[in-house]
Design a protein that fits this description.
The structure is a single chain. The chain has two domains: 60 residues, Ribosomal Protein L9, domain 1 (3-Layer(aba) Sandwich); 79 residues, Ribosomal protein L9, C-terminal domain (Ribosomal Protein L9, domain 2, Roll). It is built from three helices and nine strands, in the order E-E-H-E-H-E-E-H-E-E-E-E. It is elongated, with a radius of gyration of 23 Å. It starts with a strand and ends with a strand. The model has no long low-confidence stretch (mean pLDDT 90).
Length: 147
């Protein structure tokens, strides 16, 4: 039996895919959980149009993100924090803090997992950080300044 998945289902398929499953699995699990709907010719045609539209939007989003990463490469991001006189920070800077700073300074929204820190930043000064999302990659300098 062919169904159209409305959500990602582990070991079955991804959202908007047409997959073959047993009728028992579809009727007893996928349909009640609203994870799939029957694959009729009309719905498959609508799905193809929706998929084309989503691919075009995704392509545009990726181009914009690639341009932002190109502009981001080699930039310096300044973060002001409280520290003692030796330069030890009272609160370490983690990926979430850097993601917030990128959003406010460069209007780039990234998940924390896209920012690679060997360990949280705990001293003032300049620190090299790699930011990677999809095929886009940039190295930025985090300048930690005492408040």
């Amino acid at each position: 039996m062919q169904v159209i998945l409305t959500k990602d289902v582990a070991r079955v398929g991804r959202r908007y895919e047409v997959v073959d499953v047993s009728s028992g699995y579809a009727n007893n699990f996928l349909y009640p959980q609203k994870l799939a709907e029957p694959a009729t010719p009309a719905k498959i045609l609508l799905l193809e149009k929706k998929r084309e539209k989503n691919q075009e939007e995704e392509r545009i989003r990726n181009e914009e993100l690639a341009l932002k990463f190109k502009n981001l490469e080699g930039t310096t991001l300044t973060i002001t924090v409280k520290s003692d006189e030796q330069g030890n920070l009272y609160k370490k800077i983690n990926s979430g803090d850097i993601a917030s700073a990128l959003l406010s300074d460069h209007a780039i929204t990234l998940p924390e997992t896209a920012i690679f820190l060997e360990s949280p930043i705990d001293k003032t000064g300049d620190h090299e950080v790699t930011v990677e999302h999809g095929d886009n990659k940039a190295t930025i300098t985090i300048q930690v300044v005492r408040e």
